[in-house]
Each structure stands twice: as structure tokens, then as C-alpha cells.
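Q: What residues go here?
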């Protein structure tokens, strides 16, 4: 493992933080993930959740007020409600 490679615990922590945040119904962009969770690889961690845990994370490009195009990620309310019902 090199100095630039996060430990598996950091990766797991970022995935858990991102998923918990999305489960509130919030949407997130990579810049917000960096600010909230110090996660530099938001798209990779969300891709891990999609692939490894079959979480149906949605995404689309949005334009920021400064004109930059960035991806925004979210979970559909139906998935959130279904998941909350199964864990309640």
C-alpha cells in the first residue's frame, strides 16, 4: 500500500458515510463529499456501493452557478422507504 492509497477502513468509512447521507433523501456532489466527509473519491466509493452492494444510486450532470458541470448523486425515495421498512 502506498502513501496515496487509503486504508480499507477509510474506504469503508467513506462508503458508510455517503450511504447514510443519501439515505436521508439528500443529494450530493463530489465537492460536497469532500467538504462533508473529506472524501476525494466520491464517484469511486459510490460506484463501489452500486457494484458490491447493489445500491441503486442515481446520478446526473448538473450545472453549478459558476457554469461548471458536475455529477449529482441520490437515491430514489422508493428505495429509501423500502429500506427503512425492512430495517424497522
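A:
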Amino acid at each position: 500500500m502506498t502513501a496515496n492509497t487509503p486504508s480499507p477502513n477509510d474506504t469503508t468509512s467513506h462508503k458508510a458515510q455517503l450511504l447514510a447521507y443519501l439515505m436521508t433523501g439528500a443529494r450530493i456532489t463530489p465537492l460536497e463529499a469532500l467538504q462533508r466527509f473529506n472524501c476525494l473519491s466520491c464517484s469511486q466509493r459510490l460506484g463501489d456501493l452500486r457494484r458490491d452492494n447493489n445500491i441503486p444510486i442515481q446520478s446526473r450532470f448538473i450545472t453549478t452557478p459558476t457554469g461548471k458541470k458536475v455529477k449529482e448523486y441520490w437515491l430514489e425515495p422508493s428505495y429509501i422507504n423500502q429500506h427503512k421498512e425492512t430495517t424497522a
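A: Context that may help when evaluating the design: The chain has a mean pLDDT of 88. DSSP finds four helices and two strands in the chain.
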